[in-house]
Amino acid sequence: MARNRQRGRSGAAEGLVEAVDGGLAELISDRDRPRGWTLLIDGAPQSHVDLDDPALLTFEYQRRLGHVIDLAAPAGRPVHAVHLGGGAFTLARYLSATRPRSTQQIVEVDERLVRLVRDRLPLDPGARIRVRSADARAGLGRLPDGWADLVIADVFSGARTPAHLTTVEFLAEVRRVLKPGGTYAANLADGPPLAHLRGQIATAATVFPELALATDPTVLRGRRFGNAVLVGSDRTLPVAELTRRVASDPHAGRVEHGKALKDFTGGAVAVTDAAAKPSPVPPPAVFR
After folding, report:
1. Tell me: the pLDDT tens digits for 196-210?
2. CB under 8 Å to 61, separation ≥6 — which residues?
3. Interior/surface letters 81-102, b for 16+ CB within 10 angstroms, e for the rest
4. Is 157 left (phi over 0), alpha (psi -120 to 50) or beta?
5. Which of 104, 128, 148, 249 would you label with 55, given CA atoms 20 to 30 Å apart?
6. Residues 262, 278, 70, 26: is their CA dihedral positive or negative?
7. Given strand 23-29, what is the order of strands in its sheet?
8. Strands, E, within 146-216: which ranges?
9. Which of 255, 155, 165, 170 is nearest to 208 (CA)?
């Protein structure tokens, strides 16, 4: 059962809390934007949406994924995109606003979350966005070969990426669905000693000849837990422009590529289905 929280004299934001398959979903209204909302699952921030301005990205990692979307094809050109993990459909809304007439498929395992977002944060009825309630890997398996220009993986269960979405076999499915020259981007989360992140880079390197990593320098140096966006393709990536955009963000980041990225992996071994583990549990302080 959902419960509403109204804005009071203290200035607390209006919101809604509702049980979904993955825990407790909370929608908190944005004090500065009449139709802006932040989605949290079990207290962990997942997405921010402004229904009046779907091209607005406020979360640090979502801005970096937005740069990848912008650079995946010439500006404004429609693309075919797959979103593994739906959240509040923030990136699908962004892509629809910046690349009209694009065709998109969202795969989100949490059926009750999908219903909540559809109800409270409705999609533009004119957008070409389909939403399928399914496991990300199973949903990917239903897509035809060479369908997508872009595949974005942003899947978390209890603030952890499920083990079966961290492997060579999973990325082989991603590569199958991508067109030649297509782009893969994943939101990864890790902290010191960064074993998960290094392993994910090594894993992606077995599937994609070109890789880049965008993150906060303090995360890269293992000083704190945080997000990193890993980008892969079989074409030369626009590293210089991605670097410029990431560096000019409100929370400036850094892009690693080539030998520097390979050296960063430190000999990490690619992850297979037989040895896969979920991403690490974030420390409690991350969400305070």
Report:
1. 999 999 999 999 999
2. 187, 227, 228, 229
3. bbbbbbbbbbbbbbbbeebeeb
4. beta
5. 148
6. negative
7. 3-5, 15-20, 23-29, 36-41, 44-50
8. 148-153, 178-190, 210-215
9. 170
